[in-house]
Design goal:
single chain, alpha+beta, 3-stranded antiparallel beta sheet, 4 helices, DUF8199, HYC_CC_PP
Length: about 120
């Protein structure tokens, strides 16, 4: 449960650097290193993006920010289910003081005939 909470609240970032259509570097949670073939910085930005042989692909998955959940936010059916499930789950771990035998007061049936001998079934 903790791992699920950690994975859902963490922001994920994957950055890929391509040079001439080939994947050069992949970085998780940081910036990918370039291949060293950067264009001159004094040319204007639009001209650089058209003539550049390199490209970056960035995938960002934002984590969940609001984790405050109050019991008042749940409706009556959800509260009832939560209380019932919790109490029945806790009762699973409570042991009994003594072993309960449900047919303790009833005697076993009387054997009138030996069934194994009548049917001639013998264990060998």
């Amino acid at each position: 449960m903790v791992l699920l909470l950690l994975a859902s609240t963490t922001s994920w970032k994957v950055e890929k650097h391509f040079c001439m259509g080939h994947l050069i570097d992949i970085a998780f949670f940081s910036s990918a290193q370039d291949c060293g073939m950067a264009m001159n910085m004094d040319s204007n930005r639009s001209n650089e993006s058209e003539n550049s042989c390199c490209s970056n692909e960035i995938i960002v998955i934002d984590g969940q920010d609001d984790l405050k959940l109050a019991i008042n936010d749940l409706d009556l059916e959800q509260q009832l289910f939560l209380v019932t499930f919790t109490s029945s789950y806790i009762d699973l771990f409570i042991g009994l003081k003594e072993q309960v035998v449900p047919n303790e007061q009833y005697p076993p049936p009387l054997l009138v005939k030996d069934i194994y001998v009548l049917d001639q079934v013998f264990l060998i």
